[in-house]
C-alpha cells in the first residue's frame, strides 16, 4: 500500500531534507544527517543515534567544529524529531524530494553524522531507496549486526555501504569479505598498511578498493587521543580491557568461575591481528 503524500507542517521540520556541506558539494554529493552519538531534544526527550559507537565517539568529527554551531545543531535535532515523530510522513517527504530531476544520477550520503539506530528507521531508508532507483545511496555504518541481519540478505540495488571500525561490533566485521573503513593517523600510515585512501573523494569509500583508509582529522586533541594507533587497534584495546574487567567481576562472585571459552571463540594471535586490520 502506498503512503499518502502528506506535507510536513511543523515549523521545526526543515523545508529541504537534504543538504550539501562544502566537501560534499565539491564532489556533487548530497547529505542526510542526524545528531552524532545521542541527542537531547528541545522537548526533553533523549535518543541514542549511534548505538554501536565506542572508540570512534572520542574522535568524532561530527561533535566538533561547525557541527556544534547552534543553527547546525538545531537542524540536526529537527531531522531527528521528524524521524521519531512521523516516520511514515518523513519517508514520503524524502521520496518526494528525491523525485526532483536534480537528484537523478546523484549520490546521497545517508548519515554523515548519526547511524541506523533502529530497525524501523533502517527499513524506512530501504523503502526510500527502492522507490528511487535513479539515485545512488551510500553510508558508513558501525551497525554491523543490524546490516548483516536486515540489509545483506536483500539489499536495495542502489545502496552501497562500508563497515566502519571503532565500534562495539568490530569483532563481527570480516575484512576478508566485507568492505571496511579504518581511521589512520595519517595518509602515510594508510599507504604503509597497503590500504587505499578515500581522501581524494569520499565516494572512494564505496567505489574504490575494498579496504578503505580514512586519514584522521587534523584536530590536535583528537590526534593526541589516537596516539599513533588506527581506530581498529584502539577499539581492540578497549575490547580487551572490557573482557579483563568481566573476568575479574566473575572471580569476585562467590562460588562462580569464568566459563571456559569454546574452541570457536579462541583467537590465535594471527587472527587477532587480522581483525585489527
Report, as a whole number of angstroms, the end-to-end distance: 45 Å
Classify the helix fraction into a percent range: 25-40%
Tally of extended strands?
9
Average predicted confidence as pLDDT:
88
Radius of gyration: 20 Å
Largest sheet: 7 strands, parallel
| Spatial order of strands in the largest sheet | 1-4-5-6-7-9-8
* Structural class label: alpha/beta
Quote the beta fraction: 5-15%
Number of helices: 10
The SSE string, one letter per element, is HEEEHHEHEHEEHEHEHHH
- The coarse overall form would be globular
Which runs of at least 5 residues are low in confidence (pLDDT < 50)? Answer: 1-11, 268-277
Keywords:
single chain; 277 residues; alpha/beta; 7-stranded parallel β-sheet; 10 helices; 36% helix; 14% strand; disordered N terminus; disordered C terminus
Describe the protein.
The chain is of the alpha/beta class and 277 residues long. The chain has helices at residues 22-26, 70-85, 87-98, 119-131, 144-150, 187-193, 204-207, 220-226, 231-252, 269-275; strands at 29-32, 38-40, 46-48, 107-110, 136-141, 159-164, 180-184, 196-197, 211-215. A 7-stranded parallel sheet has the order 1-4-5-6-7-9-8. A hairpin with a 5-residue loop joins strand 2 (38-40) and strand 3. Residues 1-11 and 268-277 have low confidence and may be disordered.
The gist of it:
The protein is of the alpha/beta class and 277 residues long. The chain has helices at residues 22-26, 70-85, 87-98, 119-131, 144-150, 187-193, 204-207, 220-226, 231-252, 269-275, and strands spanning 29-32, 38-40, 46-48, 107-110, 136-141, 159-164, 180-184, 196-197, 211-215.
